[in-house]
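sry for the spam today, last one i promise. struct tokens for design, 396 residues
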């Protein structure tokens, strides 16, 4: 009995030890899987809180406090060369938008494919619009008016870079602006801004082509040339009777042709930075579009705008970018009625703006901002405005 009892005890100890080793191995495997999964995920985000106060020597105005935007970023690596990029944005505390959501498939450095909800590559700000990456509380005005930032649509295309030639490129096919659903959406005052579909149940009646090439072969200088070509979208083409010439002519009158050209440059040398953009848009069929169904719209046939900005990091020598104190000045000039067809040019759509500002970054990813804005109309002094803008910006 003693021998049998000893064998049973020994067997139990051996089984217990085996189970313990197995449990430890299983726990190690689970931990490894969790770590691998965590490595595949990437998280981030950015936010912007604004205070805007119009000032006047003759009139008192209320200021505005606004949680302008809060964006959460999530990426996931399905395979070494297949990634998901996504951004979910809350604007003004109560508006929820999908800002980006696309798959990127990398064949090599020169050729990569993208498909989904993507940003149109136009200008300096539309693709790189995190509030810690630009000077001033608000984005440059032409990046809101002539380039309706944040401008994104659903599309597919290819991008890559050729370091030997110091060139990067992007080329995509997108759906376009909603030009007409139950009414004309594009106007002289708002330009294309109210035509953004934002991938919200977007529709397509004509594909649009977007491309950009960047040259970085000169030290400290990056030059970009972008183009956007196509037509606005119209629901007049939905269930269109192809045998009806009258219906076809009517539908054709509800769209415009768009050719947008953008040139941008960015020069950095130690703490000094110089930025500039030029945007020129040619719009066809505006005479028919403006008079379509007697709506008396006022979309211009050409829009043009540009800005120049200079800044200097006063802390550059001491902190090497870990902390920054950046005074800047920016001048803008834009006109959504640069030229018109069939309507009278509206001088109230031409503005110049001058900004003086300061940004302080106590740490990487955090920026406290303040600027003074002088908005002027060269033809109508009643439209002149002065603003004080302050903000808190962060990027995770």
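last one done:
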């Amino acid at each position: 009995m003693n021998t049998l009892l000893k064998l049973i005890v020994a067997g139990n100890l051996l089984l217990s030890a085996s189970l313990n080793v197995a449990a430890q191995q299983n726990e190690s495997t689970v931990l490894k899987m969790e770590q691998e999964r965590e490595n595949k995920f990437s998280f981030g985000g950015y936010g912007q809180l604004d205070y805007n106060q119009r000032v006047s020597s003759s009139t008192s105005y209320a200021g505005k406090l606004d949680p302008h935007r809060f964006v959460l970023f999530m990426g996931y690596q399905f395979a070494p060369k297949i990634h998901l990029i996504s951004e979910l944005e809350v604007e003004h505390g109560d508006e929820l938008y999908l800002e980006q959501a696309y798959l990127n498939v990398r064949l090599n450095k020169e050729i990569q494919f993208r498909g989904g909800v993507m940003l149109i590559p136009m200008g300096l700000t539309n693709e790189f619009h995190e509030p810690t990456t630009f000077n001033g509380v608000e984005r440059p005005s032409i990046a809101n008016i002539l380039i309706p930032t944040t401008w994104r649509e659903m599309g597919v295309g290819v991008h890559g870079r050729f370091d030997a030639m110091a060139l990067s490129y992007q080329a995509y096919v997108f759906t376009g602006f909603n030009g007409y659903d139950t009414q004309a959406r594009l106007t002289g005052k708002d330009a294309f801004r109210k035509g953004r579909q934002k991938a919200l149940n977007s529709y397509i009646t004509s594909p649009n082509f977007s491309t950009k090439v960047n040259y970085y072969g000169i030290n400290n200088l990056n030059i970009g040339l972008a183009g956007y070509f196509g037509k606005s979208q119209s629901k007049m083409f939905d269930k269109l009777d192809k045998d009806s010439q009258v219906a076809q002519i009517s539908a054709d009158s509800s769209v415009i042709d768009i050719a947008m050209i953008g040139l941008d440059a960015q020069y950095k040398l130690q703490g000094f930075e110089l930025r500039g953009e030029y945007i020129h848009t040619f719009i066809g069929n505006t005479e028919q579009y403006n008079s379509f169904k007697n709506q008396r719209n006022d979309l211009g046939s050409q829009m043009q705008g540009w800005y120049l900005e200079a800044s200097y990091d006063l802390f550059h020598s001491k902190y090497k970018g870990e902390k920054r104190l950046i005074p800047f000045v920016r001048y803008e000039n834009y006109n959504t009625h640069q030229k018109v067809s069939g309507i009278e040019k509206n001088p109230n759509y031409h503005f110049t703006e001058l900004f003086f500002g300061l940004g302080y970054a106590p740490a990487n990813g955090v920026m406290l901002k303040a600027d003074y804005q002088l908005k002027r109309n060269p033809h109508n002094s009643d439209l002149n405005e002065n603003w004080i803008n302050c903000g808190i910006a962060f990027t995770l």
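The mean pLDDT is 91. ok im logging off now
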